[in-house]
Amino acid sequence: MRLSELKPGQEATVTKIENTTTARRRIMDMGLVKGSKVKVICRAPLGDPLEIEIRDYKLSLRKKDAQNILVTEAE
Amino acid sequence: MKAKKVLGDDADIVLADARYEQISKIIEASLVKGERKRTVTDVLDKVFLNKYVGIPAFFALLWAVFQFTFEASAPFMGLIEMLFAWLSSLAAQIPNEVVASLLADGIFGGLGFILSFTAPIFFLFFALSLLEDSGYLARVAFVFDKLMFKLGLHGRSFIPMLLGFGCNLPAIMAARSIEGKKDRLITILTVPFMSCAARLPVYVLIAGAFFASHAATAVWSMYVIGIVVAILFALLLRKTILKGEPAPFIIELPTYKMPTLWGSVLHMWERGVSFLKKAGTYLLVGAIILWVLSVLPWGVEAGSGDSLIGLIGQTLQPLFGPLGFNWQIVSSLVFAFLAKELVVESLGVIYGVGGEASIQAALVASITPVSAFALMVFTLLYVPCLATVGVIKKETGSWKWTLFAVLSEMAIAYLGALLIVGLGGLLGFS
User: Fold this and answer.
1) Which of A41, B232, B294, B425 is 20 to 30 A from B77 via CA?
2) Predicted confidence band at B2 (pLDDT cuts at 50, 70, 90)?
3) Do B143 and A45 touch (CB under 8 A)?
């Protein structure tokens, strides 16, 4: 499952980051790595980007970057 | 490459993974998490990021910001104008005619008029600092990122573009918050098409003279044309010399904080002073040059056809023939390099008439309505003002990009005005 497919309120664990170069670097710098727990908070009013919660802070990223982040949904 | 084979992934990924794994272990062993409560941030985000309320809430806040800026700065604007009028009247009494004219008309007259705009700029900076320190500005970028991305820009470009409607100068300075170099350049290059407050008096004068009952529509259309041109230019830049995608929108949305008065005042002061330094230097030099051009050769009536500025207007006029501009208008456009609203003042000087109604009458007698509309479009699109050019230089740190900005805006203004004249001809207006 991909991070972009999660609905607001759903929680998941990151399993793989497939993004390329610039975006991947940035994603990891922000602490979004394999094993991190994420929760989707909401989407922007126009539908993109999304806001997620990770490591007790709020991060935003575009759908197209979230598409390359694989997750498994938490129970 | 070798590392990739051994570790199964790029070295930086493996490193980051290992680092965060360690961090997680330490946190697990040492931190006892309390009950997670609903925070102020959760509640505020429910409103500001809400699908239906988010965007209207932003425009309401924006309205409040502009309202505050204008209301709070009005008395200060009056004070600054009074101060310079007083200085100017003092200088006029200097026995030496040349010095008196330079100080009274050139420096205090021109500068005072423009410096009165520092008051709203300081208050605008203050209001923005409040919003920025509260954590809200990051949300604005979040809310409008999709729209800006479609235009080849980044969410963070939205605030500068919007500020451009007030004054291009702080708008271009606000582009600093944009990380991607190309995103930032495109924003700086397109902000000048946002119709700033200084252009409004020019539209009002011309539209009032030529379009009577449709004056408001004509003025409104300037704002629309500016936005359309900005979008087209941004897309063009993205396709040609500044190729590539906007930077990824991977940013932290900070928790909301109560901004402190002192912090915001400090912020306002830093930016305001840096604005004054930049704008002030260029404006002073510009005011002196324009004064020289309008009074030389010494003894002619200031700004008349015999003065240098008149001669420049007459020399350049053939270029503007296709647009239907006479030399008086061309001269006033040269004046307006200092600040757009000077089109009105300088037309008065050049036509040798006072008062808005007489300037309007002189215009109606000399150009067609189609040319008048073309003049409005030209005023909208050509180089915003000397101070903005100065700030573009400071912010891009490059003469090449500054020259590019000036030349491209001139070309776009000319083509835009030509298009209006052409369309007007096709539709049978003259």
Assistant:
1) B294
2) low
3) yes
Q: Does A45 contact B55 at a Cβ distance shorter than 8 Å? A: yes
The domain segmentation of chain A, as residue ranges, is: 3-73
Asked whether residue B207 is assigned to any structural domain, the reply reads no
Please tell me the distance from the alpha carbon of residue B301 to that of residue B298, in angstroms, as a whole number. 9
B10 shares its domain with B113: no
Chain B residues with CB under 8 Å of A26 CB are: 248, 250
What is the rounded CA–CA span in Å between residue B183 and residue B234? 10
Pair (B28, B106) in one structural domain:
no
In a domain, B158, yes or no: yes
Region B62-88 average pLDDT: 83
Which among B80, B102, B82, B81 is positioned nearest to B91, based on CA atoms? B102
Which of A31-45, B6-20, B173-187 shows the lowest per-residue confidence on average (mean pLDDT)?
B6-20
Residue of B nearest to A47 (CA): B146
Q: How far is B54 from chain A (nearest CA, A)?
A: 7
Domain boundary among B182, B198, B214: B198
Residue B384: the pLDDT is 82
Backbone phi, psi, residue A16, to 5°: -155, 145
Residues B268 and B417 in one domain: yes
In this predicted model, which residue has the larger pLDDT, B414 or B214?
A: B414
How much is the pLDDT for A75? 66
Tokens at B283, concatenated: 């404006």
**Residue B205 CB coordination number (10 Å):** 21
- Put simply, the answer to whether A60 touches B20 (Cβ < 8 Å) is no
Q: Is residue B350 part of a domain?
A: yes
Residues of A in contact with B254 (CB under 8 A): 58
Report the CATH superfamily, name and number, of domain A3-73.
Answer: Ferrous iron transport protein A (FeoA) (2.30.30.90)
CB atoms B52 and A45 under 8 Å: yes
On chain A, the residues whose CB falls within 8 A of the CB of B145 are: 44, 48-49, 60, 62
In chain B, residues with a C-beta closer than 8 Å to the C-beta of A62 are 145, 149, 248-249
Predicted ipTM > 0.90 = yes
Task: For residues B14 and B10, give the distance between their C-alpha atoms in angstroms, rounded to a whole number.
Answer: 6
Q: Which residues pair with A40 in a beta bridge?
A: A52
Domain for residue B161, yes or no?
Answer: yes
Neighbours of B131 (CB within 10 A): 19
Interface touch B20/A47, C-beta < 8 Å: no
> Does the distance separating the beta carbons of A46 and B143 come in below 8 Å?
yes
C-alpha angle B61-B63-B68 in degrees, rounded to nearest 5: 95
Residues linked to residue B157 through DSSP beta bridges, in sequence order: none
Q: What is the pTM of this model?
A: 0.78
Give the Cα separation of A16 and A69 in Å (integer): 6
